[in-house]
Amino acid sequence: MAYKLEIKYFNSFWLKKAVMLGDTTPLWPGLPWNPSYIATDGITHSYPTFPYSVGVFKSGDQNWYVEEARIKGGFNNSSVSLGVRAYAVNDNRDKIDRSNSLIFSGVFNNRTGFNQTNVFSVGENIIKDADPLNGSIQKLYAEDTNLLVLQENKVSKLLVNKSTIYSGEQGANEALGNASTLGQLVPYLGEYGISENPESFAVFGYRKYFADKNRSAVLRLSRDGITEISAYGMRDYFRDYLASIPSTWTRTTLTKPLSGAPSGALATFSVTSDINDIEIGSEVEIDNVATGSIVTNAVDAGATVTVTIDNSYTFAGTETNAIFVTYIKGKAIGGYDVHNQNYTLSLQTEPRIISTSSDTFSTASFDEAMNGWVSFYSYKPLFFDSLKNKFYSFVDSSIYEHYYDNPPVYDTRCKFYGSVTPDEASITFIFNPNPSITKNFNTIAYEGGNGWEVDYFRSDFEGIDHNVGDATSYSSSNEYQDTTSIVRSYDEGVYTVNGVPQRVGFNRKENRYVANLVSSSTARPGEVIFGTQVSGIKGFLATTKLSTDATTDPGGMKELYSVSSNYVMSSY
Fold it and tell me: In whole angstroms, what is the distance from residue 511 CA to residue 560 CA?
């Protein structure tokens, strides 16, 4: 039979905590002969005995005190010496945060059944420290015989079972033999890291991609080192968007009405909600009172959701709302699209579980063949990745395959995450040949499939500049811009005159779709002919947007190879 023996040391001290009650009077945990304390609410609070009773402590301002630090407790008296102490091993259970260190266990051999993965011998050097000035280690990636270490502010290569020897005659060589399991940490050139966004990491072949929010850069690590791919035409965009992603955890709440009037100690209750709104792991409050429980399961029950928590909560039958508390921060989710050979990055100021609004994310892809960013997407995933030749994204508890094109289902393009109608696919670009010449743009043409229309065709702004330092002299009415009417697609723009079909938008000639640009510009001061009385628009450059229509084979294939415009030099 086991016996518990309490050991007391000579001249030891009691470290005590003073806890504030509901008013301004502190509760002093002392020895048993201290009197009780009657609070303003009329409740008598007995001071704890030694050892103290945990039940009397309450949350609030807390301070720690050492009782009787001086002999007789007198002011400026001599301190009590430590006295004779027995030799004992001091077990320091304090937490040590070594977020910049690596530790490895014993070996595992599945062929012989030898398993020491739970053995961490203190008699061996099993820890490898990275520079703490570079921040915590956020991501590890094993490649060949090395280990890629990505810290917040640095990317390094950790040699495994070898170290590098430098000599004046032969340069750097890798040496095997007596090297420790984790050898030398060799940094890559450049002060780049992965910040606190390890979810942005993606790999294909010998290329690795990730985002560094701290430096507003999207990076590629390859055989030539680290390259800032966000600088390929998108430097300003990523600089601004990465800076807008929160890096700290914020508290968000979701209030849902209780279904019915639950009563008694329950671990399961129902709320009126959509199943996708309830997040597993969120903290639960009932009418703004913390329950100390979290959501462990949520089951769709039609108009309501059955919520299960890890501890029972006693309902009085009068509660009205359940509040689900979640802590969130921004994300930079990366994945490699093996189908299109693109690195896809979704920058999210709020995670999908909080909002799917278009102003809370931006998803774009980088193409190695073009060496640039080629497309924006209108979907917001939880994460995505490739398997074999397929590209998948994950939302809630569902997996979605992209670029699905198997019969009998063909009309699946631009239908993201269960949407019935396809989202609009569009491309926006600028016509700017001969930049120093004012031009008249007369027509537009494209090569590709049927179903594209022109949403707008606009010139650059021109007008009166306001005086420097005088904001009152400027008005948007001083700016002028030429615009055109919408150019309908080949199918949407058809109409019939005396049984003969006519086209008000694109017409097909020699397998190319062409259309005249009809002006819809407003009159300027002194302008005699304007609007639909003239064709084309005038300007140094023109911005145009082509998008898919809503009637031509919705969800089907819409190819677009090239877009061109006929223009002549303006006569001024």
Answer: 13
The pLDDT tens digits for 409-434 are 667 778 888 777 788 888 888 998 88
Measure the CA–CA gap between 348 and 361, rounded to whole angstroms.
Answer: 4
Residue where a domain terminates, one of 349, 372, 403? 403
Cβ-proximal residues to 89 (8 Å cutoff; 6+ apart), any chain: none
d(CA 119, CA 126): 11
SS (H, E, C) 426-454: EEEEEECCCCCCCEEECEEEEEECCCEEE
∠76-78-82 over CA atoms, to 5°? 135
Whether residue 454 lies inside any domain: the answer is: yes
Strand segments (E) across 49-169: 62-66, 101-103, 108-109, 114-115, 127-129, 137-143, 146-151, 155-160, 163-167
Cβ pair 534, 410 in contact under 8 A? no
Please give the Cα distance from 162 to 147 (Å, whole number): 12
The answer to whether 384 touches 342, Cβ cutoff 8 Å, is no
> Pick from 560, 552, 274: which is nearest to 422 by CA?
552
Residues 373 and 317 in one domain: no
Strands 479-480 and 462-463 come out as: antiparallel
Is 384 part of any domain?
Answer: yes
Sign of CA dihedral 37, 39, 41, 45: negative
Q: Is the dihedral of CA 445, 448, 453, 455 positive or negative?
A: negative
In contact, 487 and 517? CB cutoff 8 Å? yes
Place of tokens 């009166």: 464
Give the integer Cα–Cα distance in Å for 24 and 332: 46
- DSSP code per residue over 267-282: EEEEEES-GGGPPTT-
Domain annotation covers residue 54: yes
Q: Which two tokens stand for residue 25?
A: 């009077």
Structural contact between residues 207 and 221, judged by C-beta atoms closer than 8 angstroms: yes
Mean pLDDT of 7-12: 46
For all residues of the chain together, what is the average pLDDT?
A: 81
DSSP secondary structure code for residue 524 in this structure? P
**Overall average pLDDT of the 342-350 stretch:** 94
Q: Calculate the dihedral angle through the C-alpha atoms of 23, 25, 29, 30, rounding to the nearest 10 degrees.
A: -150
pLDDT category at 477 given cuts 50, 70, 90 is low
Beta-carbon-side half-sphere exposure of residue 119 (alpha carbons within 13 Å): 9
pLDDT level of residue 498 (50, 70, 90 thresholds): confident
Distance (Å, whole) CA 471 – CA 465: 10
**393 CB-side CA count, 13 A:** 23
Q: Kindly state whether residue 59 falls inside one of the protein's structural domains.
A: yes
Claim to verify: residue 520 and residue 553 sit in the same structural domain: yes
In whole angstroms, give the CA distance from residue 544 to residue 399: 35
Residue 6 structural domain: 1-87
Confidence of residue 174 (pLDDT cuts 50, 70, 90): low
pTM of the full predicted structure? Answer: 0.69
With 80 as the cut, is the pLDDT of residue 514 above it?
yes
Tokens matching residue 205: 């072949």
Q: Two tokens at 440?
A: 């008249």
Domain shared by 233 and 362, yes or no: yes
